[in-house]
Design a protein that fits this description.
By secondary structure, the protein is mostly beta strands. It is 5% helix and 39% strand. A five-stranded mixed beta sheet has the order 1-34-35-36-37, with no helix packed on it. A hairpin with a 3-residue loop joins strand 30 (405-409) and strand 31.
């Protein structure tokens, strides 16, 4: 009997534990579809995520605001420090940290490594809010977007913004995830130009401005390239929406796209969510307010959901797009399409095999066929699969997907759950459940943890009090978000995650929830474990 028991235990260790250990979160919203799912969570369940069993375990201090989503890689060998599950954190103070993801005791009380891109004694600092005449990011701007990690090469890619003796730079860095050291050829200075007569052009050429361009969307890694998007700071121009691609090995620039080469604005914001991509290496993104003349065959595509084909000849090709019929009104009223990120749905067997969901500040839900996006119809949006105008509050976030459910976190609204019918290829006409929590600005970008199609939890950060108070971590039943399992205020101050940072997203991996905040990363899990 004992021999049988030991054989069973050996089988479990050999097969189940290695599979469990391979859970990684290496990019914005967990994958290039930007669905926010971790479908391999076996520790956190609806039965144990409650204020009695679950809560704050510890917190790591960092040197700045954390807007970027924390990233997680298991079983990383750190030279001289052994093997760790590692959580990576980037700050607006131009720092990157690697911490042990599971404990803060002993040697793990300090970072496994810390890399800074500033050197004040040499005149190299972060960029101040006053430098860009904008208080959207305070008090400084350094690393805003979520980095991306290639686990095959052990490399993290990051965009850092600096002020150097009065001059401004943005650089793409490639760091070794085991040490924080720069890879060969890293960093490279971001430079770009396109032909056009748009805002700020010089003799028919529009140049990338590292001061006015704000690098907000998370980085995308696909097909050997790092792909990056830009908008601005506080709509302070001149600026344009830029997308650039760099070879991940050589860091050579391989492609450029400008959303408004003959106009202005059209930034790629997406409230921090990375550009989405499909298995054919097409890129999907949404642009903000600005110039639009696509209906006349022009090159300016503000307030548009765009599909960029893989680059050819150092340029991205606009392969397809959708622009709402009321684009001009959206632009004039600052209710742009691009405030939220693009969500790609899994491939379907119904009438539309490849779908995406997009919602902007107006709160209209656009369900779009990625193979026939519809371009522009001046009368209505009947050319797309489904158009639900003003269905929810405006979105400064990205929806999440799980098991034919879509979760929307509007600003000034409750979290809303819609269902998707794979037979008809349509979303439910209204929400099937709503959270008991009302979220102010900016609303949450929800994340999902589940064990496949069971034990699913919707996690959402409430950051209404950013700048003045703490964030609140919420956990809801993914089958009915009207049921809340947990929130971080239920045990008084015990589970306080720290100062709220708008647009932040929790990361769930291997039984822990990682919450970014002001100068802090807070780690939640099962108490007593």
């Amino acid at each position: 009997m004992k021999s049988f028991v030991w054989k069973v235990l050996a089988f479990f260790v050999a097969f189940f534990l290695p599979a469990y250990a391979q859970v990684s979160v290496t990019t914005s919203r967990n994958d290039n579809s930007r669905d926010g799912q971790n479908l391999s969570e076996t520790i956190l369940t609806p039965t144990n995520v409650n204020a009695t069993s679950f809560g704050k375990l510890f917190a790591h201090a960092v040197d700045g605001y954390v807007y970027a989503q924390p990233l997680y890689v298991p079983n990383v060998t750190i030279p001289g420090l052994g093997t760790h599950n590692v959580v990576y954190v980037a700050t607006e103070h131009d720092s990157v940290y690697a911490f042990d993801a599971d404990s803060k005791t002993g040697l793990n009380s300090s970072p496994l490594w810390h890399r800074s891109f500033i050197h004040p004694k040499r005149g190299i600092t972060t960029v101040s809010s006053s430098d860009v005449s904008c208080t959207d990011l305070v008090p400084e701007i350094g690393i805003t977007s979520t980095p991306v990690i290639d686990t095959a090469t052990g490399t993290m890619y990051i965009i850092a913004k600096t002020k150097e003796n009065g001059n401004f730079f943005q650089r793409l860095h490639a760091l070794d995830i085991t040490t924080g050291a720069e890879r060969s050829g890293s960093p490279v200075v971001i430079r770009a130009h396109v032909r056009g007569n748009g805002d700020g052009n010089v003799n028919g050429v529009v140049y990338f401005d590292p001061l006015t361009e704000g690098q907000r969307p998370g980085l995308l890694l696909q097909n050997g390239s790092v792909i990056i998007g830009w908008a601005s700071h506080c709509d302070n121009g001149p600026y344009h929406g830029w997308v650039m691609s760099y070879d991940e090995t050589t860091l050579k620039q391989t492609a450029i796209w400008n959303s408004t080469p003959n106009g202005g604005d059209g930034g790629v914001w997406q409230s921090g969510t990375g550009l989405a991509a499909d298995s054919a290496f097409n890129i999907f993104l949404a642009t903000g307010n600005g110039t639009y003349d696509g209906k006349k065959g022009g090159d300016d595509f503000s307030d548009t959901v765009a599909k960029l084909a893989p680059p050819v000849g150092n340029r991205f090709r606009l392969a397809d797009w959708f622009t709402p019929y009321n684009q001009l009104d959206l632009s004039n009223n600052d209710t742009d399409v691009g405030s939220g990120g693009v969500l790609l749905l899994p491939d379907q067997s119904g009438p539309h095999q490849h779908l995406l969901v997009q919602v902007g500040k107006e709160g209209s839900i656009y369900l779009i066929d990625r193979d026939q996006m519809g371009h522009f119809n001046p009368n209505n949006n009947n050319q797309i699969v489904q158009d639900m105008e003003n269905a929810i509050a405006g979105l400064w976030a990205t929806p999440a997907w799980w098991n034919n459910n879509v979760y929307f976190g509007g600003s000034g609204d409750n979290l809303r759950q819609y269902t998707f019918d794979p037979t008809t290829g349509l979303l439910s006409n209204g929400a099937v459940s709503v959270s008991p929590t009302y979220f102010g600005f900016p609303g949450p970008t929800p994340s999902i943890s589940a064990n496949g199609t069971s034990d699913a939890i919707v996690w959402a950060l409430q950051t209404d009090d950013y700048g003045t108070g703490s964030a609140t971590l919420h956990a809801y039943d993914a089958t009915n978000i009207g049921t809340e399992f947990y929130n971080s205020t239920q045990s008084g101050s015990r589970d306080d995650p720290g100062g709220a940072v708008k647009f932040t997203v929790p990361t769930v991996a291997s039984g822990k929830v990682y919450v970014p905040a002001v100068q802090r990363l807070t780690v939640y899990g099962l108490l007593g474990k």
